[in-house]
Amino acid sequence: MEDCIFCKICGKEIPAEIVHEDEKAIAFKDIDPQAPVHLLIIPTKHYDGIMNVPAGNDIVAHIHTLAIKLALRFGIADTGFRIVTNCGSQAGQSVNHLHFHLLGGRSFKWPPG
Ligand code: AMP
Question: Model confidence over 48-93: pLDDT tens digits?
Fold first, then answer.
């Protein structure tokens, strides 16, 4: 989608530190990391957010499997990690292209702020 920063990362129009690519999703390092490991996992196809993924679409399952692989690869699976998707402005969604934060490498508080 035009003017979508994450679509531009998928299309290599703007740089990012990409750590995984396949036909359905890419993962890259967050530009403003909130933990020692902070990756963003996004579908290559544009969805504004989690509410916009059609029922029956397997992209969320694909990203879930990928998140587990990346947690193992980045050494955060044993100590614990979070997978977070913010939906809507009040939840803190600032980029309207579906994305999942994979965070680990430190302790987290609950409830989240
Ligand atoms: P959210 O606030 O949940 O929508 O998350 C958006 C995330 O995208 C934030 O953590 C930003 O730091 C991150 N971000 C924004 N622009 C870029 C970029 N060009 N490369 C990597 N991460 C980005």
Answer: 999 999 999 999 999 999 999 999 999 999 999 999 999 999 999 9
Atom nearest to 16 CA in ligand 1 = 20
Q: Is the pTM of this model over 0.90?
A: yes
Question: Which of 17, 60, 55, 16 is closest to 42 using CA atoms?
Answer: 60
Report CA(87)–ligand 1 centroid distance (Å). 14
For the record, the structure tokens of 41 come out as 């996992």
Which amino acid is residue 44, in one-letter code? T
pLDDT tens digits along 1-59: 889 999 999 999 999 999 999 999 999 999 999 999 999 999 999 999 999 999 999 99
Quote the ligand 1 centre to 30 CA distance (angstroms): 6
The residue among 37, 48, 41 whose CA lies nearest residue 18 is: 41
**Neighbour order of strands in the sheet with 25-29:** 18-21, 25-29, 37-43, 100-104, 81-84
